[in-house]
Amino acid sequence: MNTLNRLLGSSLGKKYVMAVxxxxxxxxxxxxxxGNLQIYLGWEALNNYAAFLKSKPMLVWGxxxxxxxxxxxxxxxxxxxxxxxxxxxxVAYAASTPIAASYASRTMVMSGLIIASFIIYHLLHFTVxxxxxxxxxxxxxxxxxxVYRMVVVGFSKPVVSLFYIVAMGLLGMHLxxxxxxxxxxxxLRTKAxxxxxxxxxxxxxxxxxxxxxxxxxxxLAGVLx
Length: 225
Prior knowledge:
Elements: H1 2-9, H2 11-36, H3 43-54, H4 57-88, H5 103-106, H6 108-128, H7 147-155, H8 158-185, H9 191-220
Helix pairs in contact: 1-2, 2-4, 2-8, 2-9, 6-8, 8-9
């Protein structure tokens, strides 16, 4: 226990926590996107998938509890590392124009907090139903919750879709740096593979952005209706 406390108390330990939790969250994003993209298979495919998940409450709530824990550790490590970096450099640079650091790397904490706020709204909107309670009352021909209709109705409002797309843009920016940085934190980055890792991170972030944003855009364009 003392060894674990010392590890978590060190900057290296917090970087490990950031990397491992970030990798876990990236894995969840992929699974979540694959599930959501079933909307293009039609209302029955998406609603059956949602009904299957609802029939496994232990799996769903266990996953939610695990995600909450992972997100909490990820945010904790990010905040503590930022505080440590600022404490080590208490005097601001005379010229505050970064050269090597990308915009994504300089705004990781801010984009992360905005994304966390969006996740809360997204859950209140589509999971809890606090934003629009009527969405949870929708039923399909099989008596299942009509998730397909819920998504179409929810994203038919341009403001909601715009908010979602902006949040996905921030998520993509966050991932483009975070996925690359986690290899560095885990000691897996080498000079030979550095460029490949950077490009791979950007491609993965772009793919998630396009996949997620395609749904509200398809709703607004009338493709999904």
